[in-house]
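Fibroblast growth factor (Chiloscyllium punctatum), 195 aa
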Amino acid sequence: MRKWMQTWILPTLLYRLYFHCILLAGSVSFACNDMTPDQLTASVNCSSSPERHTRSYDYMEGGDVRIRKLFCRTQFYLKIDKKGKIKGTANPNCNYCILEIRTVAVGVVAIRGIESDYFLAMNKSGKLYGKKTCNEDCNFRELIEENNYNTYASAKWTHNGQQMFVALNQKGVTIRGKRTKKENKSSHFLPMAVS
Ligand SMILES: *[C@@H]1O[C@H](CO)[C@@H](O)[C@H](O)[C@H]1NC(C)=O
Ligand SMILES: *[C@@H]1O[C@H](CO)[C@@H](O)[C@H](O)[C@H]1NC(C)=O
Ligand SMILES: *[C@@H]1O[C@H](CO)[C@@H](O)[C@H](O)[C@H]1NC(C)=O
């Protein structure tokens, strides 16, 4: 009897306990669903291991990755050149305009130039630049505006409580985040599928 207990019941109990722990761990991570976007952003670390991200956010967003060009309403494509400089170009066939837009949290994306392998980033001063390894400068809040254009606001930085947007002016030059407005067409981008 005792031997039977040791060989069967104990392992079964341990096994159950193990499963119980897994379930508990599962419900803890599901609790993330209740976090506000700000809390989520704070916990996001879009490092160079996409697998990890896809996996950890799978249950929330399907680990969504889109390949797009971002066409600004000022008629320029957002470009991340080979040195990581952010500009606009009128050339629709520009390779440096092909971007990977990855959902890293609810409503928050990281945007990487596929050809240059730089992430789009905005620093505290609202300056757009390219970053090789992604940190929170690379997190942007993607919002679909009424006119079907998207806006991309830094998920980390604001200026006097105002959001700072990715924007290209009438000459295709980036605008400092502090000078951008959600309503201005410089901040409006149409994500275009890459054929
Ligand atoms: C983010 O990832 C980097 C590199 O993998 C690591 O050094 C850093 O500690 C991480 N930060 C957080 C907040 O997890
Ligand atoms: C942001 O980038 C600009 C241009 O590179 C630089 O002059 C400025 O000091 C940076 N600001 C911060 C807070 O890093
Ligand atoms: C939009 O931004 C551009 C460039 O900064 C500026 O010249 C223009 O006056 C702004 N338009 C509006 C309606 O704010």
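The two ends are 70 Å apart (CA to CA). The mean pLDDT is 80. ok done for today
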